[in-house]
Write a structure and sequence with these properties.
Elements (H helix, E strand, L loop, with lengths): L3 E9 L19 H10 L8 E4 L3 H14 L3 E3 L16 H17 L12 H18 L4 E6 L1 H12 L17 E9 L2 E10 L7
Parallel strand pairs: 1-4, 2-3, 2-4
Antiparallel strand pairs: 1-5, 5-6
Helix pairs in contact: 4-5
Protein name: Alpha-ribazole phosphatase
InterPro entries: His_Pase_superF_clade-1 (IPR013078), His_PPase_superfam (IPR029033), PGM_Phosphatase (IPR050275)
GO molecular function, one term: phosphatase activity
Length: 207
């Protein structure tokens, strides 16, 4: 096994058109405010060798802009789509709480055993996200990589890195719009080691 250090910056998309809601697979583009949030989260000190993005409009449009600016490869991965919230999609948290509050509370307390009505099971969601995460660790080893994705995706990746039980992966981490996370993956003959370097609205850090 070749020794390598790979640094991943994950960034959640900015505010989409329509504002905050359980959006999931609802494919809205970024609002003007969302574009500004994303651009504000990037600094002149940032350096990446490649960008990986969710194909959803609120991610891929900004990822393409950055890839063109830096003249680096852009990879779109269907597995990085947000979790499907089923019947809750297109509704605000207050609307869901008013009509389905008990089930919503159970979901946040234990999403593994409380799938939203008509939604994607968290175990299935986790499987496809971690499959993507491990794939890009191998495919882009030794590079600095930006992943443009969703709040749920970041939660799954951080849970994998920090060994957080899946039951607590949603409630245990906040992921506001344009939130960034940095993860370092070191691979050697002794194995693969993942570490969370930073999370939140932080300025660029040098690997």
């Amino acid at each position: 096994m070749a020794d390598s250090t790979t640094v991943f910056d994950l960034i959640r998309h900015g505010e989409p058109e329509g504002g905050p809601m359980y959006r999931g697979s609802k494919d809205d583009p970024l609002s003007d405010a969302g574009w500004q949030q994303m651009r504000d989260a990037i600094t002149e000190a940032d350096r990446w060798d490649a960008i990986v993005t969710s194909p959803m409009l609120r991610c891929v449009h900004f990822a393409r802009e950055l890839a063109d600016r830096y003249q680096i490869p852009l990879h779109s991965d269907e597995r990085l789509r947000e979790i499907n919230f089923g019947d809750w999609e297109g509704r605000t948290a207050d609307e869901v709480m008013a009509s389905d509050g008990e089930r919503l509370s159970r979901f946040w307390a234990d999403p593994v055993n409380n799938t939203p009505p008509g939604g994607e099971p968290v175990t299935d969601f986790n499987k496809r996200i971690i499959g993507s995460w491990h794939h890009w660790q191998q495919e882009l080893a030794s590079q600095n990589v930006l992943i443009v994705c969703h709040g749920g995706v970041i939660r799954m990746v951080v849970a994998d890195v920090m060994n957080i039980p899946l039951e607590h992966a949603f409630s245990g981490l906040t992921t506001p719009y344009a939130c960034r996370s940095r993860i370092q993956v070191d691979t050697s003959g002794y194995g693969r080691f993942q570490s969370l370097v930073a999370h939140g609205a932080f300025k660029a850090l040098h690997p």
